[in-house]
Structures are given as C-alpha cells and as structure tokens.
Design goal:
- By secondary structure, this protein is mostly helical.
- The chain contains four helices and no strands.
- It starts with 19 loop residues before the first helix and ends in a 9-residue tail after the last helix.
Length: 81
C-alpha cells in the first residue's frame, strides 16, 4: 500500500497591520486634518476599507464620520478627478 503524503500549505509571513490611531493614542480624529484623511481615501474619492488601512473598527467609524464631515465642508471632494 502506498501512503499519500499530505503537505501543509506554507503560510506567508504577512505582518498584521496595527491601527495608527491606537498607536498614537488618539480617540478624536479631526475632520480639518485633510492631509491625514487623504491617506484613507482613494483617488476617486472612496473611503478605503479596514482590511486595506489596518484601522480598528472603533476608529474606522470615527474616521468615516470625519471624512463625511470634511466632504460636507468641501475640504475633501465627493468624487475624485
């Protein structure tokens, strides 16, 4: 009888992203800080998801509100160029 050798899949060493707002120990995200908010928005003006940015769930909710407020005050565009 032949035995089948089952190989385990090789895990890639992907480093887990850490929330930059938790590292900086900031609970409030200012909607007027456009330079920081632009990091979380695509070129077309869409918000980036958590899995791409590495932001925790609590800060993602605060970040989404800050981006929406910045759009309403015309600091960020609703649609990109």
């Amino acid at each position: 009888m032949e035995e089948k050798v089952v190989r385990k899949p090789v895990k890639k060493s992907i480093r887990k992203k850490v929330c930059i707002f938790c590292v900086e120990d900031k609970s409030a995200i200012d909607y007027k800080d456009v330079a920081k908010l632009r990091k979380f928005v695509t070129e077309k003006g869409k918000m980036l998801p958590r899995r791409m940015t590495g932001v925790c769930a609590a800060h993602q909710r605060i970040l989404a509100n800050a981006i929406k407020n910045a759009r309403m005050v015309a600091l960020l565009p609703f649609k990109g160029e």
